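WARN no homologs supplied; continuing
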Amino acid sequence: MGAHEHGPVELPGGPTDAEGLAVNEQLLGALTGAAVNGCTPCVDRLLDEAAADPASVGRLVEVSRLTALRLNRGELPAYLTTDDDPSGPAAPEFKRLVRAITAAEPLAEVCEQLTAPERRAAADYAIELLVGHLTIANTTGLDDADTLSEMCCAISALLVEWVFTTAPMARQQFTETWHQYALGQREAGLPGNGVHALALLLGAVLHHQARQDQVTVEQLRTLVFTRALPALKDPEQAGAILSGFVAPPGNDDVTVPVKRLARRDSAFLADLCKYVRHTIAMHVKDCPHGLRETDHACILAHRLPSLSDSAGPQVAAPTPEEGRRVALPHLGYSEDKPVEDAPDGYPADHVWQINTGRILLERWDADIAHWNERISEDSSISEPNYGHEVGLEVLACPACGSRDAFLAEGRWGDPLTLHCRCGVTMMSPLDAGPDDLGRLLLKRLILCEADPAYAARRLMPPLAERWEREHQARASSWYLGPDNKDVALLEALDLSGDDLSEALTAALKPKLPERHGGRGLTLFLLQVLYALSVPAVRDSADGRKLADAVRTLVADLREESDRWAPTRQPVLDRLQQWHAEGGPQLWQDAWQRTLDVVGPYFKRYRVGDGRISDGCAGLALALYLLAREADTGVDQIGVDDVRGLLAAGGTGEAAKDPAEVPRHWGSRLEELGHDLDSADDSVARLWRHLRTDRPVHVHDDRREPALVLGLENILGEQSFYRVRF
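OK structure emitted
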């Protein structure tokens, strides 16, 4: 027996497989040791034992496949995977298991589906291949250079991260989609935030394209990655590519769950394809080499500078003669359609060359929006300080940062060409649609060049729309008056002088050319200021018309603001006013008790729709009424006693008709000697205020007494505040 004892060779992988099934490491070590020593009898005997253990056969094939990858620079030769490949002697059963590993199928299940002789054949070839590879590795060593699959996945991860860094909303949208699968199908075990899943699919299609185009690792910079788009438009084809992609070893925590879910859930695969297509499209749109090409064949070399330094400008050109080109910044920027057609007196093919001043643009900031969303979901922040997501800023050259004058060039309807003094030319894509930022901006510049007063005329339609929206809102049941920030701006505007620009500057305190965030009214007035700061605009008839219209708008808003001023009063100040109206001592005690109870709840609240202040007033009235009837102090009345008064009969059950509650309270007050019509009785005055009907909801016409709505708002079981005492 001693002649048949061989030192074991330990194989990697551990005591269990990926599915948690036990692997006979001792058996595999003995088998490998016998094979290395060339002992055929021991190998045959141990293969018979291994064939009875599917998990051990699977491990042996896994290790053999891994050594094949190491010796073939990350690729599997066709004779190890393709049944009809005549170039190698691999057993069909072995090939079946290798394909299963690549496709992330449950290997033990696939092994169990084979018969014992088939498993033995697979194990026989696996051990033969493994020993041969180990012999070669010991003789020539292993090539540790990056493989094509590793490089494709690494570059793909950079491509995805660049898009998510450049366009945070794209990251947010994908994250929401990813969570639907990660949380909705927890059994899939999807990892992380999904970025590596996108990189895996993109890496797979890039690798597939590189193999088709016969692009090596050394030539990968020249890969036209846009050729991968057709496969991504067909999820079935993309799924086949992903399934057959030999992903870099050591990435199974991403590869296995993503491949498995993509195979069984077509919607998941379709979503991955959609976001990978978006990734490629974003890079093509931003590529400076394709700004004047349609269907630009973008290669990886075009994008590598931006991937290696995402903070730097993406400036490049195919030839030095064409100058340094950069994509016009577009993410988050918006431009309204022109309110006029092309200027008269110029041929349709007239090429405009315009020395522009500073170019003012509106931009939505995705980072601020993401921050607002985060703090809105943080329950520890009692008073969130939301940032303004929309703002105005002066366009800056991405290369040098200059915000000064540019030279704009192009015909009406062309994509914009904008030259900076630093030598860089900003361009919008040639194949962009008619509503593209660059095309619309060039139209605005042309109209202002032909007639500077257009800068005033273009603001008249949005002013009219703002006026109409404002007056429509005032007729709605949900309207609660002007926003507090708008009110502050209106109060800061001093229009007593003749110079509107000076008044706007003093009130707005513009931060331009840097970003100036604000509400719609702020940004509109900022555009007015910017337009009227140009003498040719300010002194024109259109400029004067715009100034008069703005004054009329501000006067109207101020009048409305004054009408709603009481709603901006702090709740506790309103309660103190009612308290100060005087009345019997018990009435004064009821008010003091009310202020003591509600003060901690509402010290930062304003009157608004009045429900909080009405509820507090109703509480004071209830304390007085119950204490007076019981001939006791208000401190002896509890919240349950007050809630009992909400029933029309005072039985403690919910009132069927809310309108009966104030009538019932009024009858009881009359029994106590109050004249409900008296103008001198502070108790009666408050009762009359609380019996007034108010809207129940903003979306319907139902109305209930302020007394009922207010008390339910602060004391009800469904109340957000749930005042208790």
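The mean pLDDT is 89.
OK
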